[in-house]
Design goal:
It is a single chain. This protein is α+β, with helices and mostly antiparallel strands. The chain is built from 26 helices and eleven strands. The strands form three sheets. A four-stranded antiparallel β-sheet has the order 4-5-6-7. Strands 8-9-10-11 form a four-stranded antiparallel β-sheet. A hairpin with a 2-residue loop joins strand 8 and strand 9.
């Protein structure tokens, strides 16, 4: 950005926001942009907030106001009209951004000229936001300097980064990082990128703590130009390790589309990471990372990237040969704790990514993936491969496949004489919030048919037909395969089976199990959630039944095998009321007090 003379006075009524952004950047002693951006000029109108309109009403009002001026071939006259309409609309920048980006345009070239007039000369944040939102679709390389400058102003970073994304990914990523880095752990990286110092960028990148990468892995890689750094020095072990961590984080799309699918140089960065992985020291942590990468390439979203023919298979073959080599062969059994658990996961998972895919068109394959999200934290998902590629991330971007206890253990995927709808995946925030993917499974003669899709993220998926005999055989194999299961999860499954066989155990105490399993961030503790319903059917003032919810935790640190731990838990439930030893978590405070339970303190 060029620097404006700091002595020139600025009038917020006549100075463009673009000029103001250049001025503010020029007078900053260290050149650092604040996390929330430079404040708008004094005297700027406060951002309005109209919340009484529906989405459709807001869309229609913005369309009616902006469509005529944006079709005007005179950009100066059109920009003046947009300024006036923006004031009359009185809507927030976020609302204007969302609807202007989708606005039908009668003349795109006229709208582009007006958008440029607004971003270069606009004096109100609302009008400039409209111009910037138009450039999300209409922007060209010549718009990059103006978008970068406007993105430094408070409230405009989000729309500016969206407009920059198709034009300059590094600049867009820098805006996103600057706005979302509340911990300021990425400040050194952002400063190095802004300064254009490649060596400082490399040093700041390898120093980034692992945890923030869970939030911004793609943006970190784009801002640092990870691909360019690897091209310059592909044999740098520290840089390779960071590349592997970022790729794995990008593949973990919990609650949103996996970022790996939007990372443009993903296939090349995978090639660097796997191709030079033999330069990495053979530590248990890196063994875990390489094996996680193999899982991502085999059955995760990374398999859906635009790979050249046989390239993905070649990378998997390279990982298999490397991890089978003597340098990566596990040594002595580590002592109990995190390292032991990591070694156990490596042992359980070691061959799964390298199992050949079934022949195209024969049958789906179900694989249970235990994926490490962070140190000593992992999640379980059922992955469905069709023609060797993962089905669920291709159809649904809001969450991974449901757990095997829901899809495989209870026969949900079996094709019976009557069609049955099955939920395959659910948004991490629940179906009621962001949806779920459902399919209807039916048997049609010698075939099993999946159709009647509901909840797909994109176009309606086609019907899938599988050979029924091969389908049933694969499902039986998956039902017998418990090799993925670790002790606490095995305990949970055995307790679930025991309660299913002996329903009177909990019924005796007016209890029911709402969930038995392991939490993602506490995978080595078996948890039982129990709900108490009073036998008299008591109801609250609003007519809803009164309930109490209890949690019982069983850590796997008692030295018992899962079979013994589960048997002991079931025996304890048979002998005594779990409400006496499980912890009350939530429910009706009146009911808890009437029964003599101590209400949990926050």
């Amino acid at each position: 950005m060029s620097v404006r003379d700091e002595r020139e006075p600025l009038d917020p009524r006549t100075t463009s926001l673009y000029d103001y952004a250049l001025f503010r950047h020029g007078i900053e002693p260290d050149g650092q942009v604040p996390r929330k951006g430079y404040p708008l000029p004094e005297g700027s109108s406060p951002e309005p907030s109209r919340t009484h309109l529906t989405w459709k009403e807001t869309r229609d009002e913005i369309t009616a106001a902006l469509a005529p001026p944006l079709a005007d071939p005179n950009p100066v006259r059109a920009a003046e009209a947009v300024h006036q309409k923006a004031r009359e609309l009185g809507m927030t920048q976020r609302t204007l951004h969302a609807h202007t980006a989708r606005l039908p345009l009668a003349d795109e070239e006229a709208a582009r000229r007006t958008a440029r007039q607004l971003t270069r000369t606009g004096t109100s944040a609302a009008a400039v936001c409209i111009g910037t939102a138009l450039l999300i679709r209409l922007g060209e390389p010549e718009d990059v300097p103006h978008l970068k400058a406007l993105g430094t102003l408070s409230g405009l970073a989000s729309v500016a980064s969206a407009a920059l994304d198709p034009l300059d990914r590094q600049a867009a990523a820098l805006l996103v990082i600057r706005g979302r880095d509340r911990s300021e752990r990425l400040t050194p990286l952002a400063a190095a990128v802004a300064a254009g110092d490649a060596e400082a960028v490399r040093a700041a990148l390898v120093a980034v703590p692992d945890e923030p990468q869970a939030l911004l892995p793609r943006r970190i890689a784009e801002a640092a130009d990870l691909h360019g750094l690897l091209r310059s020095c592909p044999v740098d072990p520290e840089l390779l390790a960071v590349a592997g961590r970022l790729l794995h984080r990008m593949s973990r799309g919990r609650g949103q589309r996996p970022e790996i699918l939007d990372y443009l140089p993903a296939t090349s960065v995978y090639a660097f990471f796997v191709g030079y992985a033999d330069r990495l020291p053979p530590t248990p942590h890196l063994h875990e990372l390489l094996l996680s990468t193999a899982l991502d390439l085999h059955s995760g979203p990374a398999a859906l990237l635009d790979w050249r023919p046989h390239r993905r298979e070649a990378l998997l073959g390279g990982l298999e040969r490397l991890l089978d080599g003597p340098a990566w062969t596990p040594g002595a059994e580590p002592p109990p704790g995190a390292e032991r658990r990591r070694a156990d996961w490596i042992r359980r998972t070691g061959r799964k990514p390298f199992v050949p895919a079934p022949a195209p068109g024969s049958h789906p394959r179900w694989e249970v993936a235990v994926v490490h999200d962070a140190p000593d934290s992992h999640s379980v998902e059922t992955r469905i491969l069709v023609d060797g590629l993962p089905l669920l991330p291709a159809l649904f971007g809001q969450g991974p496949g449901n757990a095997p206890e829901y899809l495989i253990d209870n026969g949900a995927l079996r094709a019976g004489p009557e069609p049955r709808e099955v939920q395959l995946a659910e948004a991490s925030c629940t179906e009621g919030c962001c949806g779920a993917l459902h399919v209807t499974i039916r048997r049609d003669g010698a075939e099993v048919v999946w159709d009647g899709w509901r909840g797909a993220s994109g176009p309606q998926p086609p019907a899938y037909r599988f050979d029924a005999a091969a389908y049933d055989a694969e499902l039986e194999r998956a039902e017998r395969d418990h090799s993925w299961c670790w002790p606490a999860r095995r305990t949970a499954r055995l307790i679930t089976a025991g309660l299913r066989e002996r329903p009177e155990l909990l019924r005796r105490w007016d209890l029911a199990a709402t969930w038995v399993g392991t939490a993602r961030r506490e995978p080595h503790t078996t948890m039982l959630w129990l709900v108490f319903s009073p036998p008299d059917g008591a109801e609250g003032p609003d007519g809803t039944p009164l309930r109490l919810y209890f949690e019982w935790r069983l850590p796997d640190d008692d030295g018992l095998p899962p079979e013994d731990r589960a048997a002991a838990a079931l025996e304890r439930i048979a002998r005594s009321d779990p409400k006496g030893f499980a912890r009350l978590q939530r429910g009706s405070s009146e009911l808890a007090e009437s029964l003599g339970y101590t209400w949990p303190q926050n």
